[in-house]
Every structure is written in C-alpha cells, then in structure tokens.
C-alpha cells in the first residue's frame, strides 16, 4: 500500500465523520418556518453518510493500518472547521454544501491514489462515495435556489 493512499483514506474518513456530525447537529438544532423541510433534508444526508463510515473504516483496516477514531485526530486530518454557534437554517444548508464540496475534493484525491496504487476495491468505494456526495450537493443546491 502506498503511504499517500493510506493518508488520503484517513483524510476521507475524518472528513466524512465530521460531515456526518455536522449534518446530524443541524438536524437536531434547525429552527424556523421551514423547520420540517430542513430537518428531513439533514436527516436524509446524515443517515446516508453515517451508513458509509463503517465501510470506509473497514477498507482502511484492510490496508493494514488503524483507523483514526478521535476528535483530535479527525481535526488534524480534515480541513473542516469547528462551529461554536448554530447558524440560521439557510446558512446551515450553505455551510453543509461548502463542506460537501471539500469532502468531494478529498474523495477525488483518495480515488486517484487508490487507482495509482492498484487498490481498485478502495477506488470503487471512493467512486460510490463521490456519487453519493454529488447527490447531497444537488439536494443542498436545490434547497438554496430561490
């Protein structure tokens, strides 16, 4: 296994977990006149993303290394920022979209590294994750369209 592929896989794991947590937190804390629409959108996203975490982790273990599993390590590996205050509903959607775009870049990097290393199982998983995050982006962008 190439070191670049292992690092990129860990970055995807960290970013995916933080993205999941952000979407779930937004689901819990959204308020406003369109509460139900946002609440359900965030639930749809966090449920899908959470469902991918174990598969990503198992692929990393299959590379013969340990999976990052702490908030400190996730913060080190991912470029996603911490939030201290809850934004308004539309700002939640906008922020989640920006973070989704960041995750997509990390997934693309991991895909390229896996292909270069000949780890086609992991590159296939990254292709699937890319498709899922493209769908998330579409739903988030459509929500922002006025």
Give a verbal description of the structure.
- This protein is an all-alpha fold and 146 residues long.
- The protein has one domain: Up-down Bundle (Ferritin).
- It is built from five helices and no strands.
- α2 (35-62) packs antiparallel against α5 (120-144).
- The longest helix is centred in the C-terminal third of the chain and has 29 residues, at 89-117.
- The radius of gyration is 15 Å and the shape is elongated.
- The mean pLDDT is 95.
Reported for the largest beta sheet, the result is:
none
Backbone shape:
elongated
Q: Provide the gyration radius in Å.
A: 15 Å
- CATH class equals Mainly Alpha
CATH superfamily: Ferritin, core subunit, four-helix bundle
Low-confidence stretches: none
List its traits:
146 residues; mainly alpha; Ferritin; 5 helices
Task: Summarize the SSE layout with pairings.
Layout: H1 3-29, H2 35-62, H3 71-77, H4 89-117, H5 120-144
Task: Produce a short descriptive summary.
The protein is mainly alpha-helical. It has helices spanning 3-29, 35-62, 71-77, 89-117, 120-144. Helix content is 79%, strand content 0%.
